[in-house]
Amino acid sequence: MTARTLFLLPGDGIGPEAMNEVRKIISYMNEDLGSGFVLDEGLVGGSAYDAHGVAISEEDMAKALAADAVLFGAVGGPKWDDVPYEVRPEAGLLRLRKDLELFANLRPAICYPALASASSLKPELVEGLDILIVRELTGGVYFGEPKTITDLGNGQKRAIDTQVYDTYEIERISSVAFELARTRKNAVCSMEKRNVMKSGVLWNQVVTETHKAKYADVALSHMLADAGGMQLVRAPKQFDVIVTDNLFGDMLSDVAAMLTGSLGMLPSASLGAPDAKTGKRKALYEPVHGSAPDIAGKGLANPIAMIASFAMCLRYSFGEVAQADALEKAIATVLDKGIRTGDIMGEGCRQVGTVEMGDAILAEFKALLQ
Ligand code: NAD
After folding, report:
1. Considering the entire predicted model, what is its pTM?
2. Residue-range definition of the domain harbouring residue 228
3. Distance from the CA of 221 to the center of ligand 1, in angstroms?
4. Is residue 117 part of a domain?
5. Is the alpha carbon torsion for 131, 137, 139, 142 positive or negative?
C-alpha cells in the first residue's frame, strides 16, 4: 500500500489532548489493519508562537501543503490574547485555509439517538438527524473588496463590505455539494437571498445550471436563507445536504450545530480543488470547538469531535467508507452505553475523562472491524 501522509497540528489547550485519542486509533489501524499512515507533527497557534514567534512556521506550512491530509486540533488561549494581531493563534488556521485553497467547508450535524434529549429542540425533531452543511469558505462578503470604513466628514462614517461571487466559485462549491449528496440521500437544498441580492440571483442561476448539466440525478431544491434558518429549527430532518455562501453558511452551520447538543461533538472538513494530475484534494480536518482553556490540561475534554473529524478524513481523503462508518458507529455505540464526558453528561450515565472516552471508542471500533 502506498504511504498515506497525515500532518498533525494539535495546537493549544485541549487540542493536544483530543489529538492523542486520534493517534491511538491511527496506531491501531497501522499495526492491525496495515493502513500505512505516515505521521508527521508540527506546531500551530500559541505553541508555534512560543517556539518560532509566528502562528505557523514556513517549514510546517510546507509540510501541510505536501501532506495527503492535515489534522488540526485547536488554537488560542488567554496566554496569547495580547500578541501582535498578525501572529495571533487564529492566523495559523487562516493561513492554512488560504494557502491550501480550502474553498469548501463541510459541517455535518448528526444527532446521536442517545443524545437527543440534550438538544434545545424536542427529541423527536432531532433524533437520528444527519445533515451536512456545505459552506463556501474563501469568497463572499468576508473577503470582497472594497472593504472599508470611510469618514464622511460630517460626524458620520460609512462602512462597506462587498458581497462578491464569480460563476466558477459557485460552480465548484455546488459541484462538491452534489457529489457529496450522491453518497448520502441524494438531495441538495441551495440557500441564498435572490429576492434582495444580486449575488443571490447569480448563485441561484449557477446552482441550477450546474445541476442541469452534470447532476440531474440529484434532487435539488432552493430556499431563501432566512426561511432556511427557520426550517432548520422547525423541521431539520427535511434536509440532506445544504449548500450556501460564506456568510449564510457561517450562521446556518452554527444553528445546525446546536441541534446536536455540545460543541465537543462537532467535526468539520475543509476541502480544496482536486489536483489536475492525481485527482486528490487538499484537505484539513478539525473539530468545530476551540481550545477550551477552562478545562485544558485536566483530562476532561470530549475527544469525539476530533475523532469524528478523523472519520471524515478516512471518508473524504482516503475513500475508506467502511472504516469511517465503523468509527462513527463506534462513537454511537459508546454513547448508547451511557459513557459520557462532562459536557454531555446525562442522568444515569457514567462520566469519564478524555482518555477513557477515547479507549472506549477504540475498543468498539476494533470490535466492529474484527
Ligand atoms: P471553546 O470552543 O474553546 O469553548 C467553549 C465552551 O465549550 C467552553 O466552556 C469549553 O470548555 C467547552 N468545550 C469546547 N470544546 C469542548 C470539548 N471538546 N469537550 C468539552 N467541552 C468543550 O470556545 P471559546 O471559549 O470561545 O474560545 C477559547 C479559545 O479557543 C479562544 O482563544 C478562541 O479564540 C479559540 N478558538 C479556536 C478555534 C479553533 O481553533 N478553530 C475555534 C473557536 C475558538
Report:
1. 0.93
2. 130-258
3. 34
4. no
5. positive
The residue whose C-alpha atom lies closest to atom 36 belonging to ligand 1 is 290
Residue of 263, 340, 351, 361 best suited for mutating to test ligand 1, as the one with most atoms within 8 Å of CB: 263
Q: Which residues of 254-281 are buried (b: 16+ CB within 10 A; e: fewer)?
A: ebbbbbbbbbbbbbbbbbbeeeeeeeeb
The total number of residues written for the chain in this structure = 370
Instruction: Report if residue 88 sits inside a domain.
Output: yes
Q: How many CB atoms lie within 10 A of CB 98?
A: 12
The catalytic residues are 142, 193, 226, 250, 254
Q: How far is the CA of 201 from the centre of ligand 1 (A)?
A: 36
Residue 123 lies in a domain: no
Which of 214, 230, 258 corresponds to the end of one domain? 258
CA of 335 to the centre of ligand 1 (A): 22
- Residue of the CA atom closest to atom 4 of ligand 1: 292
pLDDT values of the chain reduced to their tens digit, one per residue, 370 residues: 678 999 999 999 999 999 999 999 999 999 999 999 999 999 999 999 999 999 999 999 999 999 999 999 999 999 999 999 899 999 999 999 989 999 999 999 999 888 888 788 999 999 889 999 999 999 999 889 999 999 999 999 999 999 999 999 999 999 999 999 999 999 999 999 999 999 999 999 999 999 999 999 999 999 999 999 999 999 999 999 999 999 999 999 988 888 887 788 999 999 998 888 888 899 999 999 999 999 999 999 999 999 999 999 999 999 999 999 999 999 999 999 999 999 999 889 999 999 999 999 999 999 999 8
